[in-house]
Structure formats: C-alpha cells, structure tokens
Design goal:
With 72 residues, the chain is α+β, with helices and mostly antiparallel strands. It has one domain. Helices cover 35% and strands 18% of the residues. It is built from 2 helices and 3 strands. The longest helix has 16 residues. The protein is elongated, with a radius of gyration of 13 Å. The mean pLDDT is 96. The structure holds zinc ion. This is DUF1059 domain-containing protein.
Length: 72
C-alpha cells in the first residue's frame, strides 16, 4: 500500500544522468523537495517554470510504499 510519493530526477527529460530521488509523505512535500533540488543541483529557478513544465513534473510524482516501523 502506498504511503508516500516519490520523484526520480532521472525520469525527467534531460535529467537522465541525475541520481537524485526524492521521497516524502505528501505530494506537497515532494514538490518542495523538487524545487529545492532543481535549484541546488541544477541551478534552476522554479519560479521560471511554466504551467506545462509543472504539469509535466507532476506526472513524474508517483505513489510508492516505504516500509516504516509500526508504532508500538
Ligand atoms: Zn536532478
């Protein structure tokens, strides 16, 4: 069962050689990490992204399952 969302930078066109993979509990948090990563690792300014880019990136965020400890 999916309990998290992930984004693998290498899935993005032109980023095939980037090993970064971001995982967080919510899509909102993954977006924050994507922007931070794009800025830090690729020197991009997320404020410059148009709707098309954001829509494209959104398709790359996928539900995933991360094993976490059961609360005891
Ligand atoms: Zn990257």
């Amino acid at each position: 069962m999916a309990n998290a969302y992930s984004y693998s930078c290498r899935d993005c066109e032109g980023m095939e050689f980037c090993p970064a993979s971001l995982v967080a509990a919510t899509e909102t948090e993954v977006w924050k990490l994507i922007k931070l990563h794009a800025e830090f690792a690729h020197g991009e300014d997320p404020a410059d992204w148009d709707d098309e880019t954001r829509t494209y990136l959104a398709t790359l965020i996928v539900p995933t399952n991360v094993r976490v400890k059961e609360p005891s």
